[in-house]
Each structure stands twice: as structure tokens, then as C-alpha cells.
Design goal:
The chain is mainly beta. The protein has 1 helix and 9 strands. The two termini are 37 Å apart. Keywords: Signal.
Length: 187
């Protein structure tokens, strides 16, 4: 009986150790360089030019190893996006706060570099604007792609481009796009 219990404990410990090697959790954060593009951007019939804003993102990361060269990385991020609109006399900033959920396929070239690509769903949490804009959509779908550089087993750097595929506002054909530079830690 003692041998059976001992074997069960050893198998359970080995199973937990294998699971720990297959899934890593972590934290990440970084800078966004965000902009909005499209048609239908009008503010009181004046000609405005839009410019990118610098903002931030932060959140949780999980990496699920499927094979030696492939893994899945779901994330849960708070990300601010939007644009600044200017004409000769005025400047308006439209900043949107999203809960973004990218699910990326990671193709590992080696232990240091991987190519990341996948869909991203974003839910609007906050909207800070000092302009009478058309109302923003509460859901946005997009695609994300980029590279990850593993500095150590725990520390990583990422560069990513996210392109919104659905409109960011209800009455105009405006889409978000953002370049993200991140640093993170996996444990």
C-alpha cells in the first residue's frame, strides 16, 4: 500500500512539473504609438489633420507551449488608443481605453526570437475626449503581428503592430492602428 501511495505521489509531482514547463505566466507593459485613419472624420465642417498619440498598455501574459517551435500566447491588456485632431487654430485629443485580448500564435525561430501573429478582440472601457465626436463602438476586432526577443528565460521584449478591422466609431469609417513596444517578465 505504501508503494502505491509513493508511486502516485511521484507521478502527481512529475505531472505538476510537466504542466509548469508547458505554461508560463507573466506581466508586460509598454508604449503605444496609436492613430486613427479612415473616412468620415468631420468636426464641425472644418478641415482637421489627425496625428498619432503616444500612450501605454499593461497587462497579463500566458504562454502555452504546444511544441518546441510553436506556442500560443493569450494576453489580457489595458491599452489606450486614439488620435489628436488639429487645424490652424485648435487641437482636440480623442483617447480610448480598451480591454484588449490578443491570442497570438508564436513561431519560435530559436530560443531567442519568435514571430507572433493572431487575432485581437478589444472592448471599450473608457473614452476621454475634448471634442464632440460621433460615439465610439464598444467592440473592436483586429489582427496583431510582431516579434518577441527573449533576453533571458524570464525577461522579454516585444514589438507589435495592431490593425483594427472594424470601425472605431458608429457613424464614420474610422479604424484604430497602434504600434506597441513592450517589456515583460515571465515566471
Amino acid at each position: 500500500m505504501k508503494k502505491i501511495i509513493l508511486v502516485a505521489v511521484v507521478l502527481l509531482a512529475a505531472s505538476v512539473d510537466m504542466q509548469a514547463q508547458l505554461v508560463k505566466f507573466g506581466l508586460k507593459g509598454g508604449l503605444n504609438y496609436a492613430n486613427q485613419s479612415g473616412s468620415g472624420i468631420t468636426l464641425t465642417n472644418d478641415n482637421y489633420n489627425n496625428e498619432a498619440i503616444t500612450s501605454y498598455h499593461a497587462g497579463l501574459v500566458a504562454e502555452i507551449k504546444v511544441t518546441d517551435g510553436f506556442s500560443i500566447q493569450p494576453e489580457l491588456l489595458y491599452s489606450t488608443q486614439g488620435a489628436t485632431y488639429k487645424n490652424a487654430a485648435e487641437e482636440f485629443k480623442n483617447e480610448l481605453g480598451y480591454l484588449s485580448i490578443p491570442v497570438l500564435a508564436k513561431f519560435n525561430f530559436n530560443k531567442t526570437v519568435s514571430l507572433d501573429f493572431g487575432p485581437q478582440a478589444s472592448f471599450l472601457l473608457s473614452e476621454r475626449k475634448n471634442v464632440d465626436f460621433k460615439e465610439s463602438e464598444t467592440f473592436e476586432f483586429g489582427v496583431a503581428g510582431g516579434l518577441t526577443l527573449n533576453v533571458t528565460k524570464s525577461i522579454f521584449l516585444q514589438g507589435r503592430y495592431v490593425l483594427g478591422l472594424t470601425e472605431a466609431t458608429q457613424d464614420a469609417e474610422v479604424k484604430n492602428s497602434v504600434v506597441q513596444i513592450s517589456a515583460g517578465f515571465k515566471f
